[in-house]
Every structure is written in C-alpha cells, then in structure tokens.
Structure to design on (244 residues):
C-alpha cells in the first residue's frame, strides 16, 4: 500500500486537470510536496451542481469515518484505524467507505510520484514510481466530509484506492512477501492510476461506469527505480521491465 507520495504544485494540478475552482481551504495550511498519512493535501473532485466541472479541494489523507470522534480515524471502539488506503474488493460493504462509494464521492489524487517498499534484497528498499510519459499521476480515491461534533469544524478527507497486484510484473514485486503464502495469493497491492480520458467518467459517471475503471495499469505506464542516495545515477527500471 502507498503511504507517501509527492504532490505536484497547485498550478500544475489546475492546468493539467483543467480545474475550474478551489474550495475547502483550511487556515494555516501550507502546500506540502511530500505527503504522509494524516497530512493535509490537495485532491480533485466534482464541483457541486455543475456537470463536468472540477474543483481543487484540501483534505486530510486518511478518510474520517462518520462515527469518529476525532479527525484521527478510529474504530467505533476508539482504537486507531488506518484509512489511507482502501481495498476495492471490500469498499462497497465497508462501514468506512460504502457511503462515499455509493454516493459517488470519487476523487483524483494528484501525484508527481509515489513510493513503495521492495523487499527482494531481504530488507526494505524504497522505490519511486513516476509516469513514463512525464505526466503527473491521477490516482483513484474516495472522499467525504466530516464535522467535529464538539467544535463544529468541518473536515474533508480522502482515501487512496488499491487493487490486487499479484502477478503484475512490476507492482507484484513490491511489499514484503509472506513466505507461508503462495505467490499468487500474496495480495500485493497497487494504486489505481486513471488516464486523462477516464477522469470525467470517474468523477461524474455512475457507480457501474466507475467500477469499470478500477484496474491495474500496464507496466509500460511506469518509470520505477529505487530511491538512491543523492548523486547516484539510477536506471529507468520500469521501462527496462516493459521492454523485456
């Protein structure tokens, strides 16, 4: 699962995705380049009341479920809950995500790159994933609005959708494998990149139309390489894999 990514500059997001307006600004918010769980960052959603209009919002990475007593997501019993990533296989029944999915609260999470752990050497080596064509990623997500019952403060928050990547020639190599589980049963996870022509169906389409967009990206989409010390010349491993 993805737990850190780099956000593009706001001007790039507005130009690339043809964003019509901004909303959901928060006081004392500064645009972050590197985004971690529970950080505030920009995401793109449909503008209310205007068909095919998009707006740039600011929300917490880590969707706040409706029962949570705090903006830090917790279960109904009050224990910490990780909602940074949501498995698509269970989101339609998950108490945390099912309403956002059913109500069409889908979003695009802009990323210049994202990082994933690779354990093929026996220890964690972070890999960085960019698009091979140089464009920013538009990653599929869900969002919702939560209101603090004590203060009345309104929060937008979002989660990044993931899909099973077992067998994918690149994404299936990420994350620590379980030696007790067969290679095709590891449940390795991948984010879900959306192409530019898929943005309108994702943001404005029906649930059935959106579901058809939930798929793995071809390996040639990726430019992936280990995060190496500064000054080291890396190879474009994603392109090398695609060419094999």
């Amino acid at each position: 699962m993805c737990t850190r990514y780099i956000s593009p500059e706001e001007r790039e997001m507005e130009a690339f995705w043809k964003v019509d307006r901004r909303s959901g600004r928060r006081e004392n918010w500064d645009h972050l380049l590197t985004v971690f769980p529970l950080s505030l960052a920009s995401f793109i959603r449909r503008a209310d009341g205007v068909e095919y209009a998009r707006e740039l919002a600011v929300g917490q990475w880590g969707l706040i479920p409706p029962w949570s007593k705090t903006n830090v997501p917790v279960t109904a019993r009050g224990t910490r809950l990780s909602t940074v990533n949501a498995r698509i296989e269970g989101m339609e029944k998950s108490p945390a995500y099912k309403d956002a999915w059913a109500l069409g609260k889908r979003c695009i999470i802009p990323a210049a790159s994202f990082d994933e752990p690779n354990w093929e050497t026996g220890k964690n080596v972070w890999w960085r994933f960019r698009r091979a064509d140089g464009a920013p990623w538009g990653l599929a997500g869900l969002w919702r609005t939560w209101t603090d019952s004590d203060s009345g403060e309104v929060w937008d928050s979002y989660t990044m959708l993931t899909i099973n990547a077992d067998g994918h020639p690149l994404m299936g190599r990420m994350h620590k494998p379980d030696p007790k589980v067969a290679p095709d049963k590891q449940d390795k996870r991948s984010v879900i990149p959306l192409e530019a022509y898929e943005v309108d169906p994702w943001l404005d389409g029906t649930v059935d139309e959106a579901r058809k967009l939930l798929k793995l990206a071809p390996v040639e989409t990726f430019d992936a390489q280990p995060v190496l010390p500064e000054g080291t010349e890396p190879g474009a491993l994603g392109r090398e894999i695609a060419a094999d």
In short: The mean pLDDT is 88. The helical segments are 10-16, 98-102, 199-204, 207-211, 237-243. DSSP finds five helices and 13 strands in the chain. The longest strand covers residues 137-147.
